[in-house]
Design a protein that fits this description.
It holds the Pfam family HTH_17. InterPro entries: HTH_17 (IPR041657). Helices cover 38% and strands 15% of the residues. With 68 residues, the chain is α+β, with helices and mostly antiparallel strands. It has a three-stranded antiparallel β-sheet. The radius of gyration is 14 Å and the shape is elongated.
Length: 68
C-alpha cells in the first residue's frame, strides 16, 4: 500500500521540498552545509520526518526584527 508524502516516515529530497514549502536547491544547500541531516540507503538519499522537522524548527524566528 502506497502512502502519500505526509504519511511517510522518510522522504526523498523532492518530497521534503513539497512538504516543507522549501525549494530542492535550498534543501541541498542545507544538506551540504550540514544543517539538514540525511540518511543513505544504497544510492537513495532520504530525510526522516523528524530530521526535517528539527531543521525547520531551527530556522530563525521571523517575528524578531533586526535592529538597524
Amino acid at each position: 500500500m502506497l502512502r502519500n508524502a505526509a504519511e511517510k516516515l522518510a522522504l526523498t529530497v523532492p518530497e521534503a521540498a513539497l512538504l516543507s514549502s522549501l525549494g530542492q536547491t535550498s534543501l541541498y544547500k542545507a544538506i551540504k552545509e550540514g544543517r539538514l541531516r540525511i540518511r543513505k540507503y544504497g544510492t537513495r538519499t532520504i530525510i526522516t520526518r523528524a530530521d526535517l522537522a528539527s531543521f525547520l524548527e531551527g530556522l530563525p524566528d521571523a517575528t524578531k526584527q533586526p535592529e538597524l
